[in-house]
Amino acid sequence: MTNPVTQKKSLKLLFIAPKGKKDSKTNQKPLFHMAIGVLVSLTPKEHHIEIADEHFEDSINYDGDYDLVGITSRTIDATRAYEIADKFREKGKKVILGGLHVSFNAEEAMAHADCIVCGEAENLWATVLEDVSLGCLKPTYNAKDFPPVTKIVPLDYERIAQASKREKVDGSKSIPIYVTRGCPYECSFCVTPNFTGKLYRSQKPEDLKRQIETAKKVFFKAKSKSSKPWFMLCDENLGVSKKRLWETLDLLKGCNINYSVFFSMNFLEDKETIKKLVESGCNMVLVGFESIKQSTLEAYNKGHINSAEKFSQVIEECRQAGLNVQGNFLVNPDLDSFKDMDDLVRFVGKNNIFMPIFQIITPYPGTKMYWEYKEKGLITDYDWEKYNAINLVIHSEHYDPIAFQHKFMTSYYKTYSWINIANRVKHNPYKLLNLITSLAFKRNLKEQLNTFEVNHNIRTTRSIK
Protein backbone atom coordinates (compact mmCIF):
# COMPACT_ATOMS: atom_id res chain seq x y z
CA MET A 1 0.00 0.00 0.00
CA THR A 2 1.35 3.44 -0.94
CA ASN A 3 2.04 5.77 1.94
CA PRO A 4 -0.15 8.86 1.36
CA VAL A 5 2.50 11.06 2.95
CA THR A 6 5.10 10.24 0.30
CA GLN A 7 2.84 9.74 -2.72
CA LYS A 8 3.64 12.15 -5.55
CA LYS A 9 0.73 13.90 -7.25
CA SER A 10 0.01 15.55 -10.55
CA LEU A 11 0.54 19.29 -10.27
CA LYS A 12 -1.20 22.30 -11.74
CA LEU A 13 1.48 24.86 -12.64
CA LEU A 14 1.31 28.48 -13.75
CA PHE A 15 4.39 30.05 -15.35
CA ILE A 16 4.45 33.85 -15.57
CA ALA A 17 6.62 36.23 -17.61
CA PRO A 18 6.08 39.64 -15.97
CA LYS A 19 6.57 42.93 -17.79
CA GLY A 20 8.21 45.85 -16.04
CA LYS A 21 6.28 49.10 -16.14
CA LYS A 22 9.11 50.82 -18.03
CA ASP A 23 9.91 47.97 -20.37
CA SER A 24 9.94 49.13 -23.98
CA LYS A 25 7.10 48.42 -26.35
CA THR A 26 8.31 46.45 -29.34
CA ASN A 27 6.93 44.28 -32.09
CA GLN A 28 10.21 42.33 -32.08
CA LYS A 29 9.43 40.28 -28.98
CA PRO A 30 9.57 36.49 -29.41
CA LEU A 31 6.41 34.40 -29.03
CA PHE A 32 7.41 33.17 -25.58
CA HIS A 33 10.01 33.70 -22.89
CA MET A 34 12.82 31.19 -23.38
CA ALA A 35 13.25 30.46 -19.67
CA ILE A 36 9.60 29.44 -19.52
CA GLY A 37 9.96 27.42 -22.70
CA VAL A 38 12.77 25.46 -21.06
CA LEU A 39 10.72 24.84 -17.90
CA VAL A 40 7.73 23.64 -19.91
CA SER A 41 9.99 21.27 -21.84
CA LEU A 42 11.55 19.92 -18.64
CA THR A 43 8.24 19.32 -16.86
CA PRO A 44 6.91 15.73 -16.97
CA LYS A 45 3.73 15.25 -18.99
CA GLU A 46 1.57 14.31 -16.01
CA HIS A 47 1.64 17.92 -14.80
CA HIS A 48 -0.73 20.55 -16.19
CA ILE A 49 0.84 23.85 -17.32
CA GLU A 50 -0.52 27.31 -18.09
CA ILE A 51 1.53 30.30 -19.29
CA ALA A 52 0.74 33.98 -18.73
CA ASP A 53 2.99 36.43 -20.57
CA GLU A 54 2.43 40.10 -19.77
CA HIS A 55 4.48 41.14 -22.81
CA PHE A 56 1.44 39.99 -24.81
CA GLU A 57 -1.00 41.49 -22.30
CA ASP A 58 -2.09 38.07 -21.01
CA SER A 59 -4.30 38.34 -17.95
CA ILE A 60 -3.23 36.62 -14.73
CA ASN A 61 -5.74 34.44 -12.89
CA TYR A 62 -4.99 35.09 -9.24
CA ASP A 63 -7.86 32.83 -8.20
CA GLY A 64 -6.67 29.77 -10.15
CA ASP A 65 -6.28 26.49 -8.31
CA TYR A 66 -2.51 26.26 -8.83
CA ASP A 67 -0.17 24.04 -6.86
CA LEU A 68 2.77 26.22 -7.84
CA VAL A 69 3.22 29.61 -9.47
CA GLY A 70 6.60 30.07 -11.15
CA ILE A 71 7.77 33.57 -12.10
CA THR A 72 10.92 34.32 -14.09
CA SER A 73 12.42 37.78 -14.01
CA ARG A 74 14.94 40.03 -15.68
CA THR A 75 16.09 43.07 -13.70
CA ILE A 76 13.65 45.45 -15.39
CA ASP A 77 10.78 43.06 -14.56
CA ALA A 78 11.80 42.38 -10.94
CA THR A 79 9.53 44.90 -9.22
CA ARG A 80 6.51 43.68 -11.18
CA ALA A 81 7.49 40.06 -10.49
CA TYR A 82 7.50 40.77 -6.75
CA GLU A 83 4.08 42.45 -6.97
CA ILE A 84 2.61 39.39 -8.67
CA ALA A 85 4.30 37.02 -6.25
CA ASP A 86 3.04 38.92 -3.20
CA LYS A 87 -0.53 38.88 -4.50
CA PHE A 88 -0.48 35.10 -5.06
CA ARG A 89 1.03 34.49 -1.63
CA GLU A 90 -1.71 36.60 -0.04
CA LYS A 91 -4.12 34.08 -1.53
CA GLY A 92 -2.18 31.19 -0.04
CA LYS A 93 -0.45 30.00 -3.24
CA LYS A 94 3.08 28.59 -3.36
CA VAL A 95 5.35 30.90 -5.38
CA ILE A 96 8.77 30.16 -6.82
CA LEU A 97 10.94 32.96 -8.24
CA GLY A 98 13.84 32.49 -10.64
CA GLY A 99 15.62 33.99 -13.60
CA LEU A 100 18.54 36.31 -14.14
CA HIS A 101 17.69 38.95 -11.56
CA VAL A 102 16.65 36.59 -8.80
CA SER A 103 19.77 34.48 -9.26
CA PHE A 104 21.94 37.43 -8.26
CA ASN A 105 19.59 39.03 -5.74
CA ALA A 106 18.54 35.97 -3.74
CA GLU A 107 18.15 37.70 -0.38
CA GLU A 108 15.97 40.42 -1.89
CA ALA A 109 13.78 37.87 -3.73
CA MET A 110 13.32 35.61 -0.69
CA ALA A 111 10.99 38.17 0.88
CA HIS A 112 8.53 37.63 -1.96
CA ALA A 113 8.58 33.87 -2.51
CA ASP A 114 8.25 30.49 -0.84
CA CYS A 115 11.20 29.32 -2.90
CA ILE A 116 13.85 30.79 -5.16
CA VAL A 117 15.88 29.12 -7.90
CA CYS A 118 19.37 30.44 -8.64
CA GLY A 119 21.05 29.70 -11.96
CA GLU A 120 19.99 27.43 -14.81
CA ALA A 121 17.12 25.08 -13.99
CA GLU A 122 17.94 22.17 -16.33
CA ASN A 123 19.41 19.84 -13.69
CA LEU A 124 17.39 20.94 -10.66
CA TRP A 125 13.82 21.32 -11.93
CA ALA A 126 12.92 17.64 -11.52
CA THR A 127 13.94 17.86 -7.86
CA VAL A 128 11.84 21.00 -7.36
CA LEU A 129 8.72 19.34 -8.81
CA GLU A 130 9.25 16.19 -6.78
CA ASP A 131 9.57 18.22 -3.59
CA VAL A 132 6.41 20.19 -4.42
CA SER A 133 4.53 16.93 -5.03
CA LEU A 134 5.70 15.55 -1.68
CA GLY A 135 4.95 18.78 0.16
CA CYS A 136 8.56 19.45 1.14
CA LEU A 137 9.56 22.42 -1.04
CA LYS A 138 12.87 23.90 0.10
CA PRO A 139 13.41 27.67 0.31
CA THR A 140 16.34 27.65 -2.14
CA TYR A 141 17.60 25.55 -5.06
CA ASN A 142 20.94 26.60 -6.48
CA ALA A 143 22.33 25.24 -9.75
CA LYS A 144 25.77 25.17 -8.11
CA ASP A 145 24.54 22.33 -5.89
CA PHE A 146 23.63 20.18 -8.88
CA PRO A 147 25.66 18.73 -11.77
CA PRO A 148 26.75 21.36 -14.32
CA VAL A 149 24.53 21.88 -17.36
CA THR A 150 26.39 20.43 -20.34
CA LYS A 151 23.55 19.95 -22.83
CA ILE A 152 20.78 22.02 -24.40
CA VAL A 153 17.27 20.87 -23.56
CA PRO A 154 15.27 20.46 -26.81
CA LEU A 155 12.18 22.65 -26.61
CA ASP A 156 8.78 20.98 -26.68
CA TYR A 157 7.05 23.43 -29.03
CA GLU A 158 3.77 21.51 -29.08
CA ARG A 159 3.45 21.69 -25.31
CA ILE A 160 4.53 25.34 -25.23
CA ALA A 161 1.86 26.18 -27.81
CA GLN A 162 -0.79 24.31 -25.80
CA ALA A 163 0.16 26.04 -22.54
CA SER A 164 0.44 29.56 -23.97
CA LYS A 165 -2.22 31.81 -25.40
CA ARG A 166 -0.35 32.49 -28.64
CA GLU A 167 -2.00 31.92 -31.99
CA LYS A 168 -0.15 31.05 -35.18
CA VAL A 169 1.79 33.94 -36.71
CA ASP A 170 3.15 34.93 -40.09
CA GLY A 171 6.78 35.70 -40.88
CA SER A 172 6.63 39.13 -39.20
CA LYS A 173 6.63 37.63 -35.67
CA SER A 174 9.54 35.64 -34.31
CA ILE A 175 9.67 32.12 -32.92
CA PRO A 176 12.54 31.74 -30.41
CA ILE A 177 15.02 28.86 -30.50
CA TYR A 178 18.46 27.95 -29.19
CA VAL A 179 21.19 26.60 -31.45
CA THR A 180 23.97 27.07 -28.90
CA ARG A 181 24.28 28.20 -25.28
CA GLY A 182 27.12 29.82 -23.38
CA CYS A 183 29.92 32.16 -24.37
CA PRO A 184 33.67 31.77 -23.75
CA TYR A 185 34.23 35.53 -23.49
CA GLU A 186 34.00 37.68 -20.36
CA CYS A 187 32.66 41.12 -21.26
CA SER A 188 32.32 43.12 -18.04
CA PHE A 189 28.83 44.39 -18.94
CA CYS A 190 27.41 40.94 -19.86
CA VAL A 191 25.73 38.53 -17.43
CA THR A 192 26.27 35.39 -19.54
CA PRO A 193 29.62 34.28 -18.02
CA ASN A 194 28.10 34.23 -14.53
CA PHE A 195 24.73 32.69 -15.42
CA THR A 196 24.80 30.48 -18.50
CA GLY A 197 28.56 30.14 -18.17
CA LYS A 198 31.55 29.89 -20.45
CA LEU A 199 30.93 26.26 -21.44
CA TYR A 200 29.85 26.35 -25.09
CA ARG A 201 27.10 23.85 -25.91
CA SER A 202 25.47 23.04 -29.23
CA GLN A 203 22.20 21.39 -30.19
CA LYS A 204 22.41 18.01 -31.82
CA PRO A 205 21.63 18.52 -35.53
CA GLU A 206 18.75 16.06 -35.51
CA ASP A 207 17.22 17.71 -32.41
CA LEU A 208 17.50 21.16 -33.96
CA LYS A 209 15.84 20.14 -37.23
CA ARG A 210 13.04 18.36 -35.40
CA GLN A 211 12.34 21.41 -33.21
CA ILE A 212 12.26 23.75 -36.19
CA GLU A 213 9.78 21.54 -38.03
CA THR A 214 7.57 21.21 -34.96
CA ALA A 215 7.70 24.95 -34.27
CA LYS A 216 6.67 25.67 -37.85
CA LYS A 217 3.75 23.29 -37.51
CA VAL A 218 2.34 24.74 -34.28
CA PHE A 219 3.27 28.44 -34.56
CA PHE A 220 3.55 29.41 -38.26
CA LYS A 221 0.74 30.42 -40.59
CA ALA A 222 1.98 31.14 -44.11
CA LYS A 223 0.57 34.17 -45.91
CA SER A 224 1.60 32.74 -49.26
CA LYS A 225 3.37 29.71 -50.70
CA SER A 226 6.69 31.56 -50.70
CA SER A 227 6.48 32.97 -47.16
CA LYS A 228 8.81 31.62 -44.48
CA PRO A 229 8.66 31.63 -40.68
CA TRP A 230 10.98 33.94 -38.78
CA PHE A 231 13.04 32.36 -36.00
CA MET A 232 14.86 34.43 -33.41
CA LEU A 233 18.06 32.61 -32.47
CA CYS A 234 18.50 33.41 -28.77
CA ASP A 235 22.09 32.23 -28.59
CA GLU A 236 24.44 34.32 -26.47
CA ASN A 237 27.11 33.94 -29.19
CA LEU A 238 26.40 31.79 -32.25
CA GLY A 239 29.86 32.18 -33.74
CA VAL A 240 32.84 30.88 -31.75
CA SER A 241 34.38 28.30 -34.08
CA LYS A 242 34.16 28.96 -37.83
CA LYS A 243 33.99 25.23 -38.59
CA ARG A 244 31.08 24.63 -36.23
CA LEU A 245 29.41 27.84 -37.33
CA TRP A 246 29.50 26.82 -40.99
CA GLU A 247 28.10 23.39 -40.11
CA THR A 248 25.20 25.11 -38.33
CA LEU A 249 24.57 27.48 -41.23
CA ASP A 250 24.56 24.56 -43.69
CA LEU A 251 21.97 22.83 -41.51
CA LEU A 252 19.78 25.95 -41.26
CA LYS A 253 19.94 26.37 -45.02
CA GLY A 254 17.97 23.16 -45.42
CA CYS A 255 15.25 24.24 -42.98
CA ASN A 256 13.62 26.85 -45.26
CA ILE A 257 13.35 29.60 -42.64
CA ASN A 258 14.33 33.21 -42.10
CA TYR A 259 16.09 34.09 -38.86
CA SER A 260 17.87 36.77 -36.87
CA VAL A 261 20.77 36.28 -34.49
CA PHE A 262 23.28 37.95 -32.17
CA PHE A 263 26.61 37.75 -33.93
CA SER A 264 30.28 38.45 -33.37
CA MET A 265 31.83 41.24 -35.41
CA ASN A 266 34.98 39.27 -36.22
CA PHE A 267 33.08 36.60 -38.19
CA LEU A 268 31.49 39.25 -40.39
CA GLU A 269 34.91 40.13 -41.74
CA ASP A 270 34.84 36.84 -43.61
CA LYS A 271 32.92 37.15 -46.90
CA GLU A 272 32.23 33.41 -47.16
CA THR A 273 30.58 33.48 -43.72
CA ILE A 274 28.40 36.40 -44.80
CA LYS A 275 27.43 34.45 -47.92
CA LYS A 276 26.52 31.39 -45.86
CA LEU A 277 24.46 33.51 -43.45
CA VAL A 278 22.40 34.93 -46.33
CA GLU A 279 21.99 31.55 -48.06
CA SER A 280 20.82 29.95 -44.82
CA GLY A 281 18.01 32.51 -44.41
CA CYS A 282 19.54 35.08 -42.06
CA ASN A 283 17.88 38.45 -42.63
CA MET A 284 19.57 40.37 -39.81
CA VAL A 285 22.46 40.10 -37.38
CA LEU A 286 22.68 42.09 -34.15
CA VAL A 287 26.26 43.19 -33.57
CA GLY A 288 27.59 44.81 -30.41
CA PHE A 289 29.72 47.56 -31.94
CA GLU A 290 29.67 49.32 -28.53
CA SER A 291 31.26 52.56 -29.81
CA ILE A 292 32.77 54.34 -32.83
CA LYS A 293 35.19 56.27 -30.62
CA GLN A 294 38.60 54.61 -30.63
CA SER A 295 39.51 55.51 -27.04
CA THR A 296 36.19 54.09 -25.83
CA LEU A 297 36.75 50.87 -27.78
CA GLU A 298 40.17 50.62 -26.16
CA ALA A 299 38.59 51.07 -22.72
CA TYR A 300 36.34 48.09 -23.54
CA ASN A 301 39.42 46.14 -24.68
CA LYS A 302 38.20 46.13 -28.28
CA GLY A 303 40.28 48.94 -29.76
CA HIS A 304 43.04 46.64 -30.98
CA ILE A 305 40.68 44.79 -33.32
CA ASN A 306 37.88 47.23 -34.14
CA SER A 307 37.43 50.75 -35.48
CA ALA A 308 34.68 52.90 -36.97
CA GLU A 309 36.22 52.45 -40.42
CA LYS A 310 36.11 48.67 -40.09
CA PHE A 311 32.47 48.83 -38.95
CA SER A 312 31.51 50.85 -42.03
CA GLN A 313 33.26 48.40 -44.32
CA VAL A 314 31.61 45.35 -42.76
CA ILE A 315 28.16 46.95 -42.80
CA GLU A 316 28.46 47.77 -46.50
CA GLU A 317 29.78 44.31 -47.43
CA CYS A 318 26.87 42.70 -45.57
CA ARG A 319 24.39 45.05 -47.22
CA GLN A 320 25.70 44.21 -50.69
CA ALA A 321 25.37 40.51 -49.87
CA GLY A 322 21.73 40.95 -48.74
CA LEU A 323 22.21 41.02 -44.96
CA ASN A 324 21.00 43.70 -42.54
CA VAL A 325 23.35 44.63 -39.71
CA GLN A 326 21.63 45.89 -36.57
CA GLY A 327 24.12 47.94 -34.56
CA ASN A 328 24.12 48.09 -30.77
CA PHE A 329 26.00 51.06 -29.24
CA LEU A 330 26.80 51.82 -25.59
CA VAL A 331 26.97 55.38 -24.28
CA ASN A 332 29.08 55.90 -21.17
CA PRO A 333 29.09 59.22 -19.26
CA ASP A 334 32.67 58.58 -18.13
CA LEU A 335 33.92 58.04 -21.68
CA ASP A 336 31.52 59.77 -24.07
CA SER A 337 30.69 63.45 -24.49
CA PHE A 338 27.65 65.16 -25.98
CA LYS A 339 29.72 65.67 -29.14
CA ASP A 340 30.44 61.94 -29.24
CA MET A 341 26.69 61.31 -29.26
CA ASP A 342 26.30 63.72 -32.17
CA ASP A 343 29.09 61.91 -34.02
CA LEU A 344 27.36 58.58 -33.39
CA VAL A 345 24.06 59.86 -34.79
CA ARG A 346 25.87 60.99 -37.95
CA PHE A 347 27.66 57.63 -38.24
CA VAL A 348 24.37 55.73 -38.00
CA GLY A 349 22.79 57.95 -40.63
CA LYS A 350 25.76 57.83 -42.99
CA ASN A 351 25.90 54.02 -42.83
CA ASN A 352 22.10 53.49 -42.93
CA ILE A 353 22.36 51.10 -40.01
CA PHE A 354 19.37 48.80 -39.68
CA MET A 355 17.29 49.28 -36.51
CA PRO A 356 20.08 50.93 -34.44
CA ILE A 357 20.01 50.46 -30.68
CA PHE A 358 21.51 52.98 -28.24
CA GLN A 359 21.99 52.03 -24.59
CA ILE A 360 23.34 53.91 -21.60
CA ILE A 361 25.94 51.74 -19.89
CA THR A 362 24.07 49.91 -17.13
CA PRO A 363 25.59 47.66 -14.44
CA TYR A 364 23.09 44.81 -14.42
CA PRO A 365 23.16 42.51 -11.39
CA GLY A 366 25.26 39.45 -12.16
CA THR A 367 27.78 41.30 -14.32
CA LYS A 368 31.38 42.00 -13.40
CA MET A 369 30.60 45.68 -13.93
CA TYR A 370 27.83 45.60 -11.30
CA TRP A 371 30.10 44.24 -8.61
CA GLU A 372 32.85 46.72 -9.47
CA TYR A 373 30.51 49.73 -9.50
CA LYS A 374 28.75 48.64 -6.32
CA GLU A 375 32.04 48.16 -4.46
CA LYS A 376 33.14 51.66 -5.48
CA GLY A 377 29.78 53.19 -4.51
CA LEU A 378 29.10 54.35 -8.07
CA ILE A 379 25.56 52.99 -8.40
CA THR A 380 23.15 55.84 -7.63
CA ASP A 381 19.79 54.18 -8.20
CA TYR A 382 18.50 50.71 -7.29
CA ASP A 383 15.04 51.23 -8.72
CA TRP A 384 15.06 48.13 -10.93
CA GLU A 385 12.39 49.57 -13.23
CA LYS A 386 14.98 52.10 -14.39
CA TYR A 387 17.35 49.35 -15.54
CA ASN A 388 16.21 49.55 -19.16
CA ALA A 389 19.43 51.11 -20.54
CA ILE A 390 17.85 54.53 -21.17
CA ASN A 391 18.22 55.74 -17.56
CA LEU A 392 21.48 56.80 -15.94
CA VAL A 393 21.79 54.76 -12.74
CA ILE A 394 25.50 55.34 -12.11
CA HIS A 395 27.49 58.31 -10.84
CA SER A 396 28.77 60.74 -13.45
CA GLU A 397 31.71 63.03 -12.81
CA HIS A 398 31.00 65.16 -15.86
CA TYR A 399 27.24 65.50 -16.38
CA ASP A 400 24.01 66.21 -14.61
CA PRO A 401 22.05 62.93 -14.84
CA ILE A 402 18.89 64.53 -16.24
CA ALA A 403 20.80 66.52 -18.85
CA PHE A 404 22.79 63.46 -19.90
CA GLN A 405 19.68 61.28 -20.22
CA HIS A 406 17.88 63.94 -22.22
CA LYS A 407 20.80 64.32 -24.61
CA PHE A 408 20.98 60.54 -24.95
CA MET A 409 17.26 60.19 -25.67
CA THR A 410 17.15 63.01 -28.20
CA SER A 411 20.23 61.57 -29.94
CA TYR A 412 18.64 58.12 -30.06
CA TYR A 413 15.43 59.58 -31.45
CA LYS A 414 17.35 61.43 -34.17
CA THR A 415 18.55 58.12 -35.61
CA TYR A 416 14.89 57.47 -36.46
CA SER A 417 14.29 60.79 -38.25
CA TRP A 418 12.20 60.53 -41.40
CA ILE A 419 15.24 61.07 -43.61
CA ASN A 420 17.16 58.31 -41.83
CA ILE A 421 14.20 55.94 -42.13
CA ALA A 422 13.79 56.75 -45.84
CA ASN A 423 17.48 56.11 -46.53
CA ARG A 424 17.41 52.92 -44.49
CA VAL A 425 14.51 51.57 -46.51
CA LYS A 426 16.05 52.72 -49.80
CA HIS A 427 19.51 51.21 -49.32
CA ASN A 428 19.01 48.11 -47.14
CA PRO A 429 17.70 44.64 -48.05
CA TYR A 430 14.31 43.51 -46.71
CA LYS A 431 12.81 46.95 -47.24
CA LEU A 432 9.45 46.25 -45.62
CA LEU A 433 11.21 44.92 -42.52
CA ASN A 434 13.29 48.10 -42.37
CA LEU A 435 10.18 50.26 -42.65
CA ILE A 436 8.06 48.40 -40.10
CA THR A 437 10.80 48.21 -37.47
CA SER A 438 11.85 51.83 -37.96
CA LEU A 439 8.30 53.14 -37.58
CA ALA A 440 7.80 51.07 -34.42
CA PHE A 441 11.08 52.31 -32.90
CA LYS A 442 10.30 55.92 -33.84
CA ARG A 443 6.88 55.75 -32.19
CA ASN A 444 8.20 54.15 -28.99
CA LEU A 445 11.19 56.49 -28.67
CA LYS A 446 9.02 59.55 -29.22
CA GLU A 447 6.66 58.38 -26.48
CA GLN A 448 9.55 57.75 -24.06
CA LEU A 449 11.15 61.11 -24.84
CA ASN A 450 7.89 63.03 -24.42
CA THR A 451 7.22 61.30 -21.10
CA PHE A 452 10.73 62.08 -19.87
CA GLU A 453 10.38 65.76 -20.80
CA VAL A 454 6.99 66.05 -19.07
CA ASN A 455 8.24 64.29 -15.92
CA HIS A 456 11.28 66.58 -15.70
CA ASN A 457 9.56 69.78 -16.85
CA ILE A 458 11.82 70.12 -19.89
CA ARG A 459 10.60 72.50 -22.55
CA THR A 460 11.98 72.03 -26.02
CA THR A 461 11.55 73.35 -29.53
CA ARG A 462 12.44 70.02 -31.08
CA SER A 463 12.88 70.08 -34.84
CA ILE A 464 13.55 66.39 -35.46
CA LYS A 465 11.74 65.35 -38.60
UniProtKB/TrEMBL annotation:
GO terms for molecular function: 4 iron, 4 sulfur cluster binding; catalytic activity; cobalamin binding; metal ion binding. The keyword 4Fe-4S applies. Residues 169-397 form the Radical SAM core domain. Keywords: 4Fe-4S, Iron, Iron-sulfur, Metal-binding, Methyltransferase, S-adenosyl-L-methionine, Transferase. Its cofactor is [4Fe-4S] cluster. The keyword Cytoplasm does not apply. One of its GO terms (cellular component) is cytosol. InterPro entries: Bacteriochlorophyll_C8_MT (IPR034498), BchE-like (IPR051198), Cobalamin-bd (IPR006158), Elp3/MiaA/NifB-like_rSAM (IPR006638), Methylthiotransferase_CS (IPR020612), Methyltransferase_Class_B (IPR034466), rSAM (IPR007197), rSAM_horseshoe (IPR023404). It comes from the Bacteria. Residues 12-139 form the B12-binding domain. PANTHER family: ANAEROBIC MAGNESIUM-PROTOPORPHYRIN IX MONOMETHYL ESTER CYCLASE-RELATED, BLL1977 PROTEIN. This is Radical SAM domain protein. It comes from Pelodictyon phaeoclathratiforme (strain DSM 5477 / BU-1).
